[in-house]
Amino acid sequence: MIISYLLILINNIVFKLSGDRKLGRLLENIVKEVRGYAEGQIEHIRKLAQIGMALSGQKNLDTLLEMIVEAARNLSGADGGTLYIVDGKARSLRFAVLQNDSMKIRKNSSSWDIPNVPLFDADGNPNHANVSSHVAITGETINIEDVYQTEEFDFSGTKEYDAATGYRCQSMLVIPLKNHEDKIIGVLQLLNAKDPETGETTAFPREIVDLISSLASQAAIALTNTQLIEDLKALFYAFIKSIATAIDAKSPFTGGHINRVVSLTMDIAEAINQDSSGPFKDIRFTDDEMEELRLAAWMHDIGKITTPEHIVSKKNKLETVFDRIHLIETRLLLIMQLMENEYLRSEIEILETDNSEKAIKRIKLLNRELQGKKTEILDTIDFLKTINASKGAVDDRSIRQVKDIAARTYRIGENEYPWLSENETRCLTIPRGNLLDEERRIIEKHAEMTLNIMRELPFPERFAHVPEYASAHHEKLDGSGYPLGLKEDEIPLQARIIAIADVFEALTARDRPYKKPMPVSKAVEILEAMKKAGHIDKDIMELFVKKGVYKQYAEKKLNPQQLE
Q1: How far, in Å, CA of 311 to CA of 436, rounded?
Q2: What is the DSSP secondary structure assignment for residue 132, as one 8-state letter?
Q3: What is the 3-state secondary structure (H, E, C) of 134-183?
Q4: Is the pLDDT reported for residue 14 higher than 70?
Q5: CA distances from 382 to 185, 275, 379, 387 (A)
Q6: Which of 303, 301, 289, 309 is nearest to 258 (CA)?
Q7: Which of 36-40, 88-92, 138-142, 489-493 has the lowest mean pLDDT?
Q8: Cα 209 from Cα 205, distance rounded (Å)
Q9: From CA 55, how far away is CA 63, in angstroms rounded?
Q10: Is 30 helix (H, G, I), strand (E, B) or coil?
Q11: Closest CA to 101 of 129, 78, 83, 126
Q12: pLDDT for res 110
C-alpha cells in the first residue's frame, strides 16, 4: 500500500515538472526503478502467500519437508538447500532433505543415509563449530558470503566434499525454524545464491534473508502442525494396537488373530480396488476409506475386552477357570475307593463269622465283582474325558450314556450325591462344540460391546464409519447374525470384507494348541458352504478365490503343509 502511494506521488510530481525535460527523464527513471522494485516485492509477497497456503494444506510430512526446501530455493535463487530436523532425544540435527540443481540431487532421509549433526560434544558442551548446529543452538540467522573466506565455523567437511565432487560451495544462508513456542525445531541451509541475470554465484542479499526468514516462520508452523497430526495419528494407532494386543493376550489360543485379520482384510480391499471387470469394477476405496477399513479391522474384537477370559479361551466342554474333568475324575476315584471300602468291610464280616471254604468262595466272588465295578468306573472316566475334549458332534447314544452316568448316586454318611452335577451334565451333553447357549451369548455379546465402546470414541469425520464396520463383522446376509440381525442391504461392504477375513483366519490359524491347522482347501470349502447358505457375501468370496487372495495370505502366514 505504501509503495502504491509512493508511485502515485512520484507520478504527480513528474506531471507537474514535465516542462523540465531533463528533470522529467530523471524522475521517469526513478519511477521505473521504484516500480520495478515494487513489482518485485509484490511478486515476492504473492509467492510467499501462495507458498504459505500450499504448506499449510500439505499433510504428508515427507512431501512438506521437500516443499519447504523447494520453496526457499525458488524464492532465494539458491542452487542447493538442506533441511535438518531437531532430534531432541538424540540431541542432534537429523538430515531430512537435500536438493542441488547443479549436481542433480534430490535426496531425503529414506534414500540417503547421512550422519546426524551433534548439538553437543562428548563433554556436553554446545557444538558451535558446525554452522547448522550453531544456528539450532542460538537461533541466529547466519549469512556467509564465501565459506572459504571465513574462519568462524569449521567447513573442512564441505571443502572435502567439494574436492571429491568438483563442486564449489560459496555463499550460504542458514536460518532456524522456530515453532509457536519459539522453540527451534529445524534448520534450513541454502547454498550458492544465483544472480538471476548472469547466473553467477553471489551472496544472499539482505531483502532475501528477510523473505526467507518469513518463509521459515511459515514453514515452522506448517511443520509443527503436520508433526502434531503425525504424532496424534501415531499415538492413536499405538493405542489401538495396544488394545488389540491386550485382547489377543486374554487367550493363549488367539495370539496374533487381530493382526492377521487386519492383513487379510487389507489384501481383500486391495483386490477389490484392482478389480477392473468384475462386480467391483466401479468401486475404488480412497486412501481415507482404506485407512478407515484398517482401523475397523484393528478394532473389530475390542468388545472382547469385556468377555471373561475362561470363556474366550474355553478349550473343553467342562472348562471354566479350570477344566473340571479333573474334579470328576477325582470324584469317581473317590466313589471307587468308597466301593472298595464297602467290599472290604463285607469281607471282614464274613471272615469274622466264617472261615470255611464256602466263605472263601464268597470273598473271591466279591473281589471279582469289585474289580468289575472298578473297571467300569475307570472306563467311565476315560469316556467322560473323551466327551469333554470332543469338538465335533456328540451322538445321541453318547448323550444318553452321559445322562445315565449322571443319574447314578453315591453316599457319604447320610447324604446322597449324583455322580455328575446338573451343570456338568449340561456341559458334557453339548451336541457340538464346547459352549453352552449362555456362554455363546456372552461371546456374541462382544460385537455389541464393540459397537457400544466405539460409539463413545470421537472419531474424526473421515473415520466416522469405523464403529459400524467393526461391530458388524458377525452379521449375516440372511439376517441370522449378530449383534443387530442386519440383512444384506443393511450390511456395509467393509463389514462383509472383515467377516470373511475373520472366518478364514480363525479356520486356518496355526497357533491353536487345541486343534491342528486346517488345510486351506477345507477352509475355502467351509466358506463356500457359508456363501451358499447366505451367510457371507457371494461376490467377495468369489473374488477371494478367483484372485488368489487366500493363497497369497496362506503363503505369508500359514504352514506350507496347509497349502498342499
Answers
A1: 10
A2: H
A3: HHHHHCCCEEECCHHHCCCCCCHHHHHHHHHHCCCCCCEEEEEEECCCCC
A4: no
A5: 71, 54, 5, 9
A6: 301
A7: 36-40
A8: 6
A9: 10
A10: helix
A11: 78
A12: 76
Q: pLDDT tens digits for 298-320?
A: 999 888 888 887 887 788 899 98
C-alpha distances (whole Å) from 458 to each of 180, 454, 461, 465, 471 are 27, 8, 9, 11, 16
- Helix/strand/coil (H/E/C) assignment for every residue in 534-560: CCCCHHHHHHHHHCCHHHHHHHHHCCH
Collect contacts of 234-239 with beta carbons under 8 A, ≥24 apart. 237/298
- For residue 317, give the amino acid letter: K
CA distance 219 to 285: 32
pLDDT tens-digit series, residues 213-250: 877 777 777 777 777 877 888 888 888 888 877 777 76
Nearest Cα to Cα of residue 557 among 529, 520, 522: 520
How much is the average pLDDT of 62-76?
83
What does pTM read for this prediction?
0.67
CA 195 to chain centre: 50
For residue 73, the SS3 value is: helix
C-alpha to C-alpha distance for 445 and 306, rounded to whole angstroms: 9
Give CA–CA dist 139/242, Å, rounded.
Answer: 39
Q: What is the grid cell recorded at 304? A: 472382547
DSSP 302: G
Does residue 501 contact residue 543 with C-beta atoms inside 8 Å?
A: no
What integer pLDDT is reported at residue 432 of this predicted model?
Answer: 86
In contact, 504 and 537? CB cutoff 8 Å: no
The CA radius of gyration of the chain, in Å to the nearest whole number, is 40
Whether a cis peptide bond, with omega within 30° of 0, leads into 483 is yes
Cβ burial 418-455 (10 Å sphere, 16+ → b, else e): ebbeeebbbbbbbeeebbbeebeebbbbbbbbbbebbe
Cβ(91)–Cβ(120) below 8 Å: yes
Longest dimension (CA), the chain: 163
> What's residue 199's pLDDT?
87
pLDDT digits (tens, 9 = 90+) for 88-121: 888 999 998 899 999 999 888 777 778 899 999 8
The single-letter code of the amino acid at 446 is H
Share of the chain above pLDDT 90, in %: 46
- Picking from 495, 506, 487, the residue whose alpha carbon sits closest to that of residue 451 is 495
Which amino acid does the sequence have at 259? N
Report the DSSP beta bridge partners of residue 93: 86, 117
